[in-house]
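User: What would this chain look like folded?
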Amino acid sequence: MAKSVKQLQDEVLGFLESKGQSKDQFQEVTDLPAIKQLMILSAANFIIQVQDNLNKTGKVDTGALSTDITAGEIIETGSGYEISIGYPAGSKSAKYYDFVNKGVRGLVSGEPSDSPYAFRKPTAGGAMVDALARWYRRNAASGKREDQKKNLSAVQRKRKKLSKMVSAEKKLKSLAYATAVSIKRKGIKKTGFFDNAVKTSFGKEFVQAVAKIAGREIAINIR
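Assistant: Here's the prediction, encoded as structure tokens.
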């Protein structure tokens, strides 16, 4: 069943309240036409879904994939309305988010088989090794500072594990190189954090809601 504008408002504003954030920024939304309310709130819901998906899969490092995603203003065109949501062009997140989303096929495993991306060489270059070494340091440091004992998230569990590995590993570069080679062989698993958020926020229920508000069948183009 399609979600009403009121249901979307409650969902998004309830999330903000649970995070201790101000709901004032959405006050002006209630004064807009229903179709614009739906688009703005669905965009906000999409961003929430992306962030939740990343946390659930444990794919959080610097946090850029969560913080860089933005939604623009609604633009009224001759044929309807447009709203842009995603990662800013030229940002680091825009360059690598889809590798995390769709995964990268491994040289040996060939998985994920439906990914459009694949590693080409078995050896690991310096840039990849350096990036992994920095990743180990960041996450290990976060794990050492983490004092929570129960109900840990996927990210927290990973960081605690890494804090033990890195502290016991003197040759960090060797560990980073071995990891890089392993990643190229096995591939990067698909998370679907972005595609799944699209389906949740702009799937069949969204189309039905738009058609209901408009009073007629309407074309939805997502690209």
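The first strand starts at residue 70 and ends at 71. If you want, I can go into more detail on any region.
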